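Most newcomers find our protein records easier to grasp once they have seen one. To make this concrete, we reproduce a full record directly below:

…
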Amino acid sequence: METSINRPPYGILAVLMAGAFVAILNSTFLTIALPSIMVDLEVTPTTVQWLTTGYMLVNGIVIPTTAFFIQKYSVRQLFLTAISLFTIGTIIGGVAHIFPILLVARMIQAIGSAIMMPLLMNVLLTSFPVEKRGRAMGIFGLVMTFAPAIGPTLSGWIVEHFDWRMLFHIVTPIALTVLVLSFFLLKDKKEKSTIAIDALSVLLSSIGFGGLLYGFSIAGEQGWGSLQVYGTILLGVICLVLFILRQLKLEIPMLEFRIFKYPLFTLSAVISIALNIALFSGMILMPIYVQTIRGFSPLDSGILLLPGAIIMAIMSPVTGRLFDKYGARSLGIIGFALTAFTTYLFSNLTMDTSYTELLIIYAIRSLGISMVMMPIMTNGLNQLPAKYNPHGTALNNTLSQVSGAIGSALLITVMSTRTATYAKEMAATEMGKLTEQPSTALLTELQNKAMIEGINDAFLVSVGIICIALILTFFAKRATPAEDFNKPQTKAS
């Protein structure tokens, strides 16, 4: 998209942000509603989980292709296609009365959502000069962090008062409004492009990223000994290696992996992976602790995350401005220090930890994450020459999906294995004190205590990962666009 760097297209950006907001909001909307859907459509827990697993898989398959689409088509063409698909999926989801139709609806939504996110990031990068990108990406960060955080709270309230289909009915008019606005407001044109997508690259990318995402997403449930788990992960790794090798040979690759030659982009990618794992530790482990062990309602669980979501929303534009002024390193060090400290506090949970204490720690943790997320990502993208922005945004979004799946699997595995170990130890200790068969209440109490210790250990692993990211952040320098690595080197200046 050709834009004037002096006059950013604020109208276009507003439409794209609105589309991205409903798309991201929708990605977390159904989590709270899964038990209700399971009962209503008479499916098993494993089957209903495909509404989130399938959504994530489609995202992981489509996002790597967006770099090609952004280069070939105009913002208008891409966004109208994306928001139309998302709207169609939402309407179908709202009237679905059997599970297969609902699953298809979610996957159609996912295709639209997968196109929207990299497209918006690319427009932001091309619309603002490097020295003003921080505040622009800060606004984007507001959308990216506030929407998924508020999703469970809003969803919990809706599910308690209405049928789960209302989750789709509420999103439908918003999506339709964005579709109409984008039809009239997006006017950009693109010269006809002759570049064609490589079919083998698409196949290898789909199996590679899809295999990794699927394997890691079911590892927590199936266990690492399952052929389905390690088989799909192994297949994914093989296809991903072949995909990367093919991209390095193609004159016009579908996804340009050579951008990892830019050190600050690579550093930001590694730090972002660690941050994603930290983010998912809170999103996955806290609901298990709050709902399964402590017995709080889904709505209370959602409200627990709300202050943190509000803080992230308020802080995203602020950290964007601070990034423009001070750079990523200072913000990253402070942010990771806060995140590490609060995550460590979460590794000391007990049956008596108060709801207020949990809420305050989670809010401060969200503050730390908000100081790191967009500044680190923006700093890495700032080093890329403009022509590689689509590849940078596509790779960042893909890594976010993959690291989220890997982080979830890792933390659930740590929690499960440590819970089993603690349960055996506690049972052996208690049995030695008893003269009769233990009661059901005692066994439940022991299981809950063992699970809390398992969750604590998983949080402790998360602390270690955050500390590694904190150390790496000390190497983050302020980035400016570097020379194209494909440009012939003439003489030293």
Observations:
- The chain has three domains: 1-186, 199-253, 258-481.
- The chain has a mean pLDDT of 82.
- Residues 199-253 form one domain.
- The two ends are 31 Å apart (CA to CA).
